[in-house]
Write a structure and sequence with these properties.
By secondary structure, the protein is an alpha/beta fold. The chain contains eight helices and seven strands, in the order E-H-E-H-E-H-E-H-E-H-E-H-H-H-E. It has a seven-stranded parallel sheet, sandwiched between helices. The termini are far apart.
């Protein structure tokens, strides 16, 4: 009987950081399920790239902002595990899906706040809860934070606060799920050149240069700088890393 690959579920895996993480995980010989909200074609392209690495992959639609859809989503994951992967459980969940909203504390609206809560905190909280029955003992949870939970840049009060909440949640997950051998860690990227937040870091030369000047390694981050860290946390080598906030920012604002 052939050995079953481990399987990772990566939310928001159609592009940017999530896509890079999914590919880096696949390079470790781990099968991957990526989720997408609207960009089905991008997600299917990611799946094809992953399959070319010699592992299996699938893409499923998920709106992390709508927790009422999580039960049917888990049913779909179970069906996909059965039909595509000949498995009944996953080993890793990477809570990557997210958006950025830039607004000062004074001007943040309740709608903006609620959108961020649903996507950045409530979504990962309850999705991970729903995943627990199909997460192998000895598996791992990888959450995504931001440097903005450590340092403060005007315009990110709500976003940074949600990420701070995720960092606290990560420690509680590690404490409460340790009996099952499940680890929970959180990665905090610094500023990354993606289309996140409308591509502001990638496309605004002045901002890009300003961030590079405040970073010890003298440049802005790229998805390639982060995906491998996510993948590492899905390996046996990371088995003793638990309840940690790992900042991958090149040394921003030291």
């Amino acid at each position: 009987m052939e050995k079953q690959n481990k399987i990772a579920l990566v939310t928001g895996g159609s592009r940017g950081l999530g896509k890079n993480a999914a590919i880096k995980i696949a390079e470790k010989g781990i099968d991957v399920i990526v989720t997408y909200q609207t960009k089905k074609e991008d997600a299917e392209n990611t799946v094809e790239e992953i399959k070319q690495l010699g592992v299996n992959a699938a893409a499923l639609q998920l709106d992390v902002a709508d927790s009422k859809t999580f039960n049917p989503f888990i049913t779909e994951v179970k069906s996909t595990l059965n039909t595509v992967f000949n498995a009944d459980k996953i080993d890793f969940i990477v809570n990557n899906a997210g958006i950025g909203i830039h607004a000062s504390f004074e001007e943040t609206t309740e709608d903006q706040f609620d959108t961020l809560v649903n996507i950045q905190f409530k979504g990962p909280f309850f999705l991970t809860q729903k995943v627990l029955p199909i997460l192998h003992d000895g598996g791992a949870i990888i959450n995504i934070s931001s440097g903005l939970a450590r340092f403060s840049l005007p315009g990110y009060a709500a976003y940074g606060a949600m990420k701070g909440a995720m960092e606290t949640l990560t420690r509680y997950q590690a404490k409460e799920l340790g009996a099952r051998g499940i680890r929970s860690n959180i990665i905090a990227p610094g500023a990354i050149e993606t289309d996140f937040g409308g591509g502001v870091v990638r496309d605004n030369e002045q901002m890009n240069a300003g961030i590079a000047a405040q970073t010890a390694l003298g440049r802005v981050g790229l998805p390639d700088d982060i995906g491998g860290v996510v993948a590492f946390l899905c390996t046996e080598e990371a088995r003793w890393i638990n309840a940690q906030r790992i900042e991958a920012s090149g040394g921003m604002f030291l």
